[in-house]
Design goal:
seven-stranded parallel β-sheet, 2 domains, Alpha/beta knot, 11 strands, single chain, alpha/beta, 60s Ribosomal Protein L30, Chain: A, 275 residues, elongated
């Protein structure tokens, strides 16, 4: 079924399965953008929109109608009751898109990457995707039997970053070949260097591992350096999304131009006029 356009008759049923079943997402290569903002991000990022489900009664603004008018994909109109039953959102906003997933080969260009190995938590992966997008990461490399980045919970946690950030998958052997031209920096409680002393120079990849066990031995072997995040006595680890975000923002701080890292403060009008 991969690559086969969806007909209007199948769109609603397929959307329900895509929201609920990873196997169906893997088989079809499709995913769901549940909400106007997510549909727009996916479309603007160049993902193929295979179909839209539209409920005029739930629309709160003009954007949903603009997206419907602009698409050449099938559009199915739903009642308020059917849209509410279908959507995974607590308060559906009237538009759901079925989009084609986009996976890319390991990149030959770009300078900063995030590597996530065998993550189990959808919230953690979503948070890392969102932070990676905010810090200018050039791509996310997923390794091992990890949570699906196109799971609806990950899409929501990432605020749609899964649609805009380049996504890559790699086996240990493929990653080892790719990493010959990249400085791989792994995060571990046993790391020798404080992450704040790492320069994060050149073309580098920041690697974080599974929530309980951390990086697998094969990925540790591929790392050029291991860094640690200092903590007070009594703690030996952080949540992987927190740890990854700290590394990403330290890399961002060191690599971004000063005006981006520390922009001039915006002047705000006072809430009450002073006479």
């Amino acid at each position: 079924m991969t690559g086969t356009p969806l007909s209007s008759d199948l769109l609603e049923a397929s959307c329900a399965r895509l929201l609920a079943e990873r196997r169906f997402r893997d088989q079809t290569g499709l995913a769901v953008a549940d909400g106007v903002g997510f549909v727009r991000r996916a479309r603007d990022a160049g993902l193929v929109v295979e179909g839209l489900l539209f409920c005029p009664a739930l629309c709160r603004g003009p954007m949903a109608r603009r997206l419907v008018r602009a698409t050449t994909a099938p559009v199915v109109r739903l009642s308020r009751e059917r849209m509410t039953a279908l959507s995974a959102r607590a308060s559906p906003d009237g538009l759901i898109g079925v989009v084609r997933q986009r996976w890319r080969p390991l990149p030959r260009d770009g300078s900063l990457f995030l590597v996530a190995e065998r993550l189990r938590s959808m919230g953690n992966l979503g948070t890392l995707l969102r932070t990676a997008r905010a810090t200018g990461v050039d791509g996310l490399v997923l390794m091992g039997d990890a949570v699906d980045p196109y799971d609806p919970a990950v899409v929501r946690a990432s605020m749609g970053a899964v649609f805009t950030l380049p996504m890559h998958r790699a086996s240990p052997s493929a990653f080892a070949r790719w990493a010959r031209d990249v400085t791989v920096i792994g995060a571990s409680a046993e790391g020798v260097r404080d992450f704040r002393a790492e320069p994060f120079e050149g073309r580098c990849a920041l690697a974080v591992g599974e929530e309980r066990r951390g990086l697998q031995r094969s990925l540790r072997t591929a790392c050029d350096r291991m860094v640690r995040i200092p903590m007070c006595d009594g703690l030996d680890s952080l949540n992987v999304a927190v740890a990854g975000s700290l590394l990403l923002y330290e890399a961002f701080r060191r690599r971004a131009p000063p005006e981006v890292v520390d922009p001039a403060p915006r002047r705000r009008r006072p809430a009450v006029e002073v006479p």
